[in-house]
């Protein structure tokens, strides 16, 4: 591939089924940190190597295609790289963007992996029912803000935790959570959860791990469900924070289940049917934190671990 003064000349070799993409929007995700470390159990997840562009989810425009499913001008989302243009093998899953009357950045947020993660985790793993009491950590983030809104659509009572007053206000005033608290200002998380859930928690949507999980274990109801989506507080630690209250899994007969969104891609059409009308009718809110330019991507990624992002962290490279 030759890139000359902003124009690209590409001759895909005869028989090639690769796709040349112009990357428009890139996603910053907490899991990317883990791919930079050597973590036992993560082998096979495509860990990063120094000198190569990071891989991750993005929204892109097809510039050339040797694959019959994609043609020049198509908009797609899927796995790409942190670079302006990417040549991707057709074996790499790319979803064609059908609804272009919503912001394209949504395909790395509410209509992409975070949206699918919230949907699969909450409905398929959490098995919610009306009246359930739901707690969500990292609740104002890309995934959490949707879990809370899905919980409200289901008729649940939902409380979120987040790391600043502004985020707590967002949860209560814009995202429709019944209540929210700033975990950084709660010296005793167990006492805080008892305040918000005097009758206990039916579903905990776990995004952070560590001390929050430990306090939640003391506050689950009998036969409660813990949906383990992520543990962002743990990804940068050499030694994981100790979780000491695991015996409650027995006392309360709790089901705790980890999940990976990739196991649920077959639900994507059903998910779109659920969520697209809600977006178009203004029934769902999606908060994004948008920065411009590839040079802003590394600090944005690092910022996820201090809570600098408010909502889904998006990097814009080009708008089309
Ligand atoms: P977010 O947009 O929520 O960004 C991360 C947020 O985590 C920060 O804004 C910060 O919010 C919070 N945070 C960071 N460090 C800590 C800490 N030490 N303790 C508590 N909170 C912290 O990210 P996503 O919504 O994209 O991801 C949420 C979780 O879902 C992550 O754990 C991620 O790995 C996981 N995930 C899992 C998937 C799966 O298939 N299982 C797929 C996609 C995501 P605050 O200011 O509130 O602290």
Automatic annotation (TrEMBL):
Could you list this entry's UniProt keywords, alphabetically sorted.
Oxidoreductase
Pfam families associated with the record? ADH_N_2 (PF16884), ADH_zinc_N (PF00107)
| Molecular function GO terms recorded | 2-alkenal reductase [NAD(P)H] activity
UniProt xrefs under InterPro entries: ADH-like_C, ADH_N_2, ER, GroES-like_sf, MDR_fam, NAD(P)-bd_dom_sf
The answer on whether this UniProt entry bears the keyword Cytoplasm reads no
Where the record annotates domain Enoyl reductase (ER), the positions are 19-315
Under which name does UniProt file this protein?
Answer: Enoyl reductase (ER) domain-containing protein
Source organism of the structure: Arachis hypogaea
